[in-house]
Amino acid sequence: MFKPLTGKYDQGPAHLMVYAGVGGEDAKDWADMLFRMYFKYAQKRGWKVLVTEDRGMEIHGDFVYGTLKNEMGVHRLVRISPFSSKQLRHTSFALIEIVPILPDVEHKKLVIPPEDLKVELSRSSGPGGQNVNKRETAVRIVHLPTGISAGSQQERSQPQNKEKAMALLKSKLMALMIAQRKQQLSDLRTKVKPEWGNQIRSYVLNPYKMVKDHRTGTQSSQPEKVLEGDLDKFIESELQL
Q1: Could you give the domains of the chain?
Q2: Which of 88, 207, 222, 238 could serve as 70's disulfide partner, Cβ 3.0–4.6 Å?
Q3: Alpha-carbon torsion, ordered 122, 127, 131, 135, to 10 deg
């Protein structure tokens, strides 16, 4: 029985990066193999894939992040090294990082509930605090949940000052949201190093053939198929955790 994908970002797209770890040229080659594996898996799911950088891709579709988020971690490969003239068995590591692609915050789409706002009116003042207008045309708007405020008094009419104050308030709130988004992404990034002892899954091509997930115990004796994007069994078992 799968757990429902109800996380904050589960329904949306994701950015997947592969980082080569310990293992020299073998590790770089292993990172390339993993990149191809996830690329093919995404294509099989009918998701749209955009290569963004070296070993990086954006994946767009339904529930991409929720489906893939548990793939984040260290992946280990054991094989006869194609870079060894002595045909030695070699162990390589690579790190998979998956973070959600957060929607852009657009100024025009930022809607603030009226009950979250406190509008304060006052007379416009000139240099030295002199009142230059007998009517209350100056406007200050406070966003109650955050305490952020913005004001305007340079226009002649109250509606114009209110419009300017609201635009400034939205700009301040957008800056706050962008900062919070950066922090959220930082919190979601893995802090694990791609090295021995941290692996979540092992792919063994020699002396025997097996892929084993160390969290769920799920195994496959056909690593070639797994590396061609046949990940359903592993991802389905993750969704039961």
Answers
A1: 14-105+193-238 (3.30.70.1660), 115-183 (3.30.160.20)
A2: 238
A3: -50
